[in-house]
Structure prediction request, 493 residues.
Amino acid sequence: MAATASPPAPISVKSGVAPLRAGQGYSFLLRRLHSLSGIVPIGAFLVEHYVSNTEAMKGPAAYNATVKFLNSLPFVLSLEWGLIFLPILYHGLYGVWIWYRGEGNAGDYPWMGNWMYTLQRWTGGIAFAYIIYHTWTMRFTGVHLATEPDAGFDKVYRALYGHPWVVLFYFVGVLAASWHFAYGIWLFCAKWGITTGELARRRLGYVCLVIGLGMAGIGVYSLTGFLSYLAPTPGSTVTLLRH
Amino acid sequence: MANPKTVLFKIKRQAAPGAQPHWEEFELAWKPGMNVTSSLMEIAANPVTRAGKATTPITYDSNCLEEVCGSCAMLINGRARMACSALVDQLDQPIRLEPFSKFPVIRDLAVDRSVLFENLKQVKAWVPIDGTYDLGSGPRMTMEDQEAAYPLSRCISCCCCMEACPQFNESTGFVGAATISQVRLFNTHPTGAALKRERLAALMGDGGIQECGYAQNCVEVCPKDIPLTRSIAEVGGEVMKQAIGDLFRK
Prediction:
């Protein structure tokens, strides 16, 4: 008998989705922490940050006074790391992990909820990328505002003025963060069993729409506060004149 | 359209679990009221492709032919739905038939959906009664509870909600909406509630309710109109109450 027959190629049978692993793992805790951290402290900080930034409309002095006030808070470094940087880092990195593991299918099932699912991932990704850029350039490099709060307005202004792509990135980042936060509230209420009814979820949808538009409006309003100034005076960090 | 009217099908075929899938086209004479299952029956009666080549009949699951058994679920024009209630006149042609993409293919359009059965076992989706002696009549359910429970009891285990879910995949191992809704059903039942804590605890395991991304495709594709998103929200709340309560009780 001729020994020419080679063994058949190994068949890779698709094993399918694994059943529920009752009593195993920590993903419940991690995922719920992710969900909660988006509202408190990150969402709460986002609102504070947007509102504080509207001081920019009142001019450099008012804005710098806010920067000074925030940096005068007790335990400011612990507050920054414990309530802002670490939660955002966790929320962002775990969020990327969630995004990576999901299989978006808005093309096959093009319904509102499914589009929102996809958009929540994109806005989250854009906002996270923006926040990394924003904190790197505003907090961790350049003039240190904790020690020199009077340079606050000037620092933001110099970053934006004459850099249309940076301005665009700021607008996109502000809109993405507003959207992600507003729909995040809606998702939080649905997942934590706060809005169990169909009508309640629809009503909250309108409320979140208002929150999202409001946040976006406030963010854009603050940005225009910076953009409404002319070029900084050479050699000066604070004296900017209104056009 | 040419007369006599014909119906065109493109069917994804696969001879065995590990085999390479391929497409075959079939053209059938149009008949009034035909649906996807009746078309598959016709192909079985005369298994010849559009090109005139003899082939094997198509393997598919079906049983009741009236959308109550849950066996004939498949992807029709890319969407998870029941073949028996998919009327040909309401579908764009050529009608694309594929097996569910997230379940192991047995052959052609037949897939292995036993993961749902395993999930139901994990959450103890039953009413625990001994059965060795007469327990008498069970506790009464209020009309309100009955009306909330009945729609949940209509689940036919078709797995459409799982196939359409972006979170149901091999990476997450998400349990899916059907099982979560069954937890709500059996927790609502006065006798079934004896296992309530165990069911909710099971849903906190890996692949549990936390994996839901609230894309809400489940409730859109469900052929039985089960309020699945409501079930996920309600069970999600119960799970949270238990999880937070256990922080203090345990």
Remarks:
- The longest helix of chain A spans residues 198-227.
- Residues 42 and 198 of chain A are 27 Å apart (CA to CA).
- Residues 238-243 of chain A have pLDDT under 50 and may be disordered.
